[in-house]
Design brief:
Layout (H helix, E strand, L loop, with lengths): L1 H23 L1 H4 L2 E9 L3 E4 L4 E4 L1 E7 L7 E9 L5 E4 L6 E3 L4 E6 L11 E12 L3 E10 L2 E8 L1 E3 L2
Antiparallel strand pairs: 1-9, 1-12, 2-3, 4-8, 4-10, 5-6, 5-7, 5-9, 10-11
Length: 159
């Protein structure tokens, strides 16, 4: 009986290690030279009776996780719930991120123009194949001793 439990435990440990290794490797094998990334952002969320909204501040962070290659942020566009562009953050000068560098921008809590279904579309490129950056939004609001915060991660999309 004890041998069966130990064997079962060993199988669980080996399977979990295999899953961990498998989930860690796609980023390395998935090097590309450019991409378009959709990132959900919420400038507000429903609460209570679902008729009221809480405004949230939004932080967009773009992490260049490549250890050797720099990447260029070609465009950052912010869209509202209806899919209409609100603002283009890069107009004349592209942003270059060195290896392991991060770029962030923020939207104030008082700016609820994005609404509940706001999002960013980020286009990036590199001179040679690079690890895809991690692009996420962090939403937060606090009132008195109450607070809400959560994150959303970007997803590569075809144009």
């Amino acid at each position: 009986m004890k041998i069966r439990k130990n064997t079962a435990l060993l199988i669980v440990v080996i399977c979990s290690l295999f899953v961990s290794i498998q989930s860690a490797t796609p980023q390395v094998k998935n090097k590309v030279q450019n991409n378009t990334v959709y990132v959900p952002a919420y400038s507000s969320v429903y609460h209570s009776d679902l008729k009221r909204e809480i405004n949230l501040s939004v932080t967009l962070s773009i992490h260049n996780i490549d250890m050797k290659n720099r990447i260029t942020i070609d465009s950052i566009d912010y869209y509202n719930t209806s899919g209409k562009i609100i603002y283009s953050y890069i107009k004349d000068k592209k942003i270059i991120l060195q290896p392991l560098e991060t770029y962030s921008l923020g939207i104030k809590e008082t700016d609820n123009s994005g609404g509940i279904g706001a999002n960013f579309i980020i286009k990036w490129s590199a001179q040679s194949k690079a690890n895809q950056p991690i692009i996420e939004t962090i939403m937060i609001s606090t009132k008195g001793q109450q607070g809400i915060s959560f994150t959303s991660r970007g997803v590569a999309v075809d144009e």
